[in-house]
Amino acid sequence: MLAELLQFLVSGLTVGAVYALVALGFTLIYNASDVVNFAQGEFVMLGGMVTVFAVAAGIALPLAAALAILVAVAVGLLLHRLAIEPARGASAVTLIIITIGASIFLRGVAQIVFDKRFHQLPAFSGSDPILLAGAAILPQSFWVLGGALLVFLGLFVFLEKTLLGKAVLATAANRLAARLVGVDTSFVLALSFGLSAAIGAFAGILITPITLTSFDVGTLLALKGFAAAMLGGMGSPLGAVVGGLLLGVLESFAAGTISSAYKDAVAFIVILAVLFAMPQGLFGRRSVERV
Amino acid sequence: MRLSPRWQFPFRARWATLLILAAVIGTIPWFFPSGFYFRVAALVWVTALAAVGLQVLMGQAGQVSLGHAGFVGIGAYAMALGPKYLGLDVLLCLPLGAIVAAAVAFVVGRPILRLKGHYLAVATLGFGMLVTMVLVSEVGITGGPDGIRVPRAELFGWRIRGGETFYWIAGVALLVGVWIALNLQDSPSGRALAALHDSEVAARTVGIDVAAHKLRAFVIAAVYGAVAGGLLALMNGFVTPDAAGFLASIEYVTMVVIGGLASVPGAVVGAALLVLLPQTLTFLHEYEQAVLGVLIMLFMIFLRAGIVPGLAALLRRKAA
Q1: Among A35, A39, A63, A263, which has the highest number of CB atoms less than 10 A from its own CB?
Q2: Average pLDDT of chain A?
Q3: Which are the contacts of A246, defined by CB distance < 8 A and separation ≥ 6?
Q4: Cα distance from N-terminal residue to C-terminal residue, chain B
Q5: Which residue among A104, A268, A279 places its CB closest to the CB of B115?
Q6: Residue B138 sits in which domain range?
Q7: Does pLDDT of B10 surpass 70?
Q8: Domain-embedded: residue B134
Q9: What pLDDT band is residue B8 in, cutting at 50, 70 and 90?
Q10: CATH architecture classification, A2-277
């Protein structure tokens, strides 16, 4: 029984770590611009797909991964420069539709450049499960959890300890005030797109050995990441992490104990219940509507 | 509070819109080179009907829904499940589906609509997912991912079939739907929705029952979706869970926004665009998706308020 619970917990945290990374990407861009970037899942797809094809072309895995992150960052910056920046001042919903257009575009390009098949990467350090208190854990799970932890810590240090990070936080708190004290908010916005893309691609690389990847994995991940960000409270990086992990664990336990067909249903019902009790999510800012 | 220009000639504008739409529906069949075009155009009108419903909710009441296709799915599956399990005539299932959708919207909407903005979006998204999941998982009842057959409709011994017949049914349904939506926009209820769209607090201070009005808009949107779904099922003779899926919901939102969030005819234009573009882009083969994505981005960058309001503003500027 305990072994089973541990099994569910670890597999839930593994998937949840990916949701958390996607949710973090959402949060960074949202804080800088109020845009909910529905192309966020496409960064994850790019991370996985570019790595797969680079490895297939004979490039060593670490180099392939770095290349994939670079490609995703370039795409993120281009997305900002060519699609978001020209529409500056448009309403939030217009910007969201632009990102939906971008995600359709990226998916379309990916199926031409790559293909429509599923692809796998070899696990980074073997695929013999490690037995831990009766639960069989894939070594790749540790890579995912460790990698996610690294991102969380890195992002925390960046936001809290560096001047640039504080500029990002200031922009999130109040764009106009940030501009008044000399923060280059459009640079912060570009930075957020680049950073989100890098985080997304990183998540895609880590998870591909477990879940496979294809040109259209982004949609579902974007949807889950969005739900996770809402669960945690939109705009809160801590909320994104907690929301993502929670969502993953919920799904895993629901799949293991109730029904795998309805695992997403259970997760969404819990999200709804949380939102009814806390309409701003777990860590969201309480906002007072100004009249 | 600033009144948008659409309030200025509501009466004239409303009849002009309806007349133009009726003229389009009535005349374009003259230009159809083959029967296939009737089917595509019927699909446009039916999709537009669903989009108009979402426009009432999103454009007029300002409430986002990422689960609109869930209601389309309910309407569509009613056409298949009603005859199969309840032995009902398939035509009777059209209003039945609408009633079920309205009831579901009424029950679900009450708690969900307390949420705002992106939180509402994720709650409606969850609703849509639940509907899809039930349709996919209950294979014994719904046929699962493979879908289910919808019986042919028969009215007094006359079998309803063929692209041309459906073209006129869908066209009339859309005309009625647009007429109701336009009337709603200029009714006290519509003004209340517009007021709460701008500011819920301000609306409440002038005595508008915000929760009741939001719920009504949600139910209206659900009925539009279900009727459109029912007609769609009847036309295709078949439904799959994709009709209720997340991608379909996203498409409806895109239609409403790209056509112009504040505009009822905008929803029709948006629907026409998103149904017709993939049909016309097929010559691009594998580049179809990429081009579709670029077009959506370009439309939104250059006509931010949407196609109909954006073009109207351009024309006004030219005239002035």
Answers
A1: A39
A2: 90
A3: A16, A228, A231, A232
A4: 25
A5: A279
A6: 10-24+35-246
A7: no
A8: yes
A9: very low
A10: Orthogonal Bundle (1.10)
Residues of A in contact with B202 (CB under 8 A): 291
The reply to whether B201 touches chain A by the CB within 8 Å rule is yes
Q: Where is pLDDT greater, at A215 or A66?
A: A66
Instruction: Assign B11 a pLDDT band (cuts: 50, 70, 90).
Output: low
pLDDT digits (tens, 9 = 90+) for B69-92: 999 999 999 999 999 888 888 888
B201, two tokens: 């607090």
Q: Which residue of B has its CA nearest to A101?
A: B293
What is chain A's percent helix, strand, coil content, to nearest 5?
A: 75, 5, 20
Which residue among B114, B118, B258 sits closest to A230, beta carbon to beta carbon? Answer: B118
pLDDT digits (tens, 9 = 90+) for B244-275: 988 899 999 999 999 998 899 999 999 999 99
* Strand ranges in chain B using DSSP code E only, listed in sequence order: 148-149, 153-155, 158-160, 238-239
Nearest-angstrom CA–CA distance, A268 and B130 = 8
Q: What is the pLDDT of residue B9?
A: 47
Residue A289 banded pLDDT, cuts 50, 70, 90: low
CB contact under 8 A, B257 and A107: no
Q: What is the ipTM of this complex?
A: 0.88
B258 part of contact set with chain A, CB < 8 Å: yes
The Cα–Cα gap between B306 and A207 comes to 38
Nearby residues of A116 by Cβ (< 8 Å), 6 or more positions away: A214, A215
N residues, chain A: 291
- Among residues A269, A221, A31, A233, the alpha carbon closest in space to that of A107 is found at A221
Residues A248 and A270: their CA atoms lie apart, in Å, by 12
Task: Report the residue of chain A nearest B129, measured CA to CA.
Answer: A265
Q: Is A271 on the interface with B (CB under 8 A)?
A: yes
User: Which residue in the set B201, B293, B305 is minimally distant from A101, CB to CB?
Assistant: B293
Nearest-CA residue of chain B relative to A36?
Answer: B118
Q: Please check whether residue B147 lies inside any domain of the structure.
A: yes
The total number of structural domains in chain B stands at 1
Collect all residues of chain B within an 8 Å Cβ-Cβ radius of residue A98: 296-297, 300-301
Half-sphere exposure of B299 (CA within 13 A, CB side): 28
B291 touches chain A (CB under 8 A): yes
Q: Would residue B201 count as lying in a domain?
A: yes
Under 8 Å between Cβ of A201 and A72: yes
Q: Judge whether residue B179 has pLDDT over 80.
A: yes
In whole angstroms, give the CA distance from residue B265 to residue B244: 24
Q: Which one of A30, A111, A230 makes the best mutation probe of the B interface by having the most chain B beta carbons within 10 Å?
A: A230
For residues B147 and B88, give the distance between their C-alpha atoms in angstroms, rounded to a whole number.
19
**CA angle, B232 then B235 then B241, to 5°:** 45
pLDDT tops 60 at residue A283: yes
Residue of A nearest to B137 (CA): A261
Residues 137-176 of B with CB under 8 A from A: 137
Question: Which of A139, A195, A146 minimizes the C-alpha distance to A167?
Answer: A195
Q: What is the pLDDT at residue A277?
A: 85
Residue B258 near residue B72 (C-beta atoms within 8 A): no
Residue B313 within a domain:
no
Identify the three-state secondary structure at position B148. strand
Burial class (CB in 10 A: 0-12, 13-18, 19+), A17: buried
Position A288 scores a pLDDT of 55
